[in-house]
Amino acid sequence: MHLPDGIIPIEQSAVYWCITLIVIAVFLHKFSKNPQKERTMVSIALFSVFFVVVTSLSIPSPLGVPIHFFLIPLVAIILGPFNGSIVSFFGLLMQALALDMGGIVCFGANFLVIGVVVAFVTYGFYTLLDNVNDKLAIFISTVAGIVLATFAQILILMVSGAMNLDSLLATLVPFYLFVGVIEGFANTIIIYAIRTIKPEIMNINKI
10 Å Cβ neighbour count for 203? Predict the structure, then answer.
């Protein structure tokens, strides 16, 4: 889901960068009031490295296109949406600079899709459904975060004029729905394993 430089016009990229800076500013404001600053920073650093490693792996799929997992739904559920966004920010920046995944000019667009839409939609659905059924909440929130992020990327590409709607819907939606389902099952297993083996990780102050 990493968009490369050159696919989005400069003026549109500038708008996405402005949104990115606003999200970072809000995070810093909230983080300044966080009583668990050191513990949260350690978690953000560890998950950022984990994000770079996991999302850089190409996993073969029956669809013929390799899968790259997002990880941000998992981070958002554990750490909260703003912390999840910052993990995405650092991870995407490292990938753009060191691994040539995505670009710097269109970094704001990639951050908006992965760091904002995925994180906040996932966390929103999780908090909404958690009291109904926890396992279902993890699964549905992961799928919803990834699918709605796919539509956000489709909107960005349509506005940029890079591709037409029919092509985007036919290619991106089925693929990322498949990824969302796989990651939803994985996140359910991972979170329940964390709660059993290392429950204190789930007690980070979520912002």
Answer: 10
The enclosing domain of 49 has a CATH number of 1.10.1760.20
Listed in sequence order, the residues at least 6 apart from 189 whose beta carbon sits closer than 8 Å to its beta carbon are: none
Distance (Å, rounded) from C-alpha 173 to C-alpha 179?
10
User: Tell me: the pLDDT tens digits for 39-57?
Assistant: 899 999 999 999 999 888 8
Number of structural domains (the chain) is: 1
Q: Which are the contacts of 88, defined by CB distance < 8 A and separation ≥ 6?
A: 51, 72, 75, 111, 114, 115, 118, 119
Q: Which two tokens stand for residue 36?
A: 């668990």
How do residues 72-90 score in pLDDT, each as one tens digit? Answer: 999 999 999 999 999 999 9
- Tell me the CA end-to-end span of the chain in Å, nearest whole number: 25
- Is the pTM for the entire model greater than 0.90? yes
Token pair belonging to 29: 């404001």
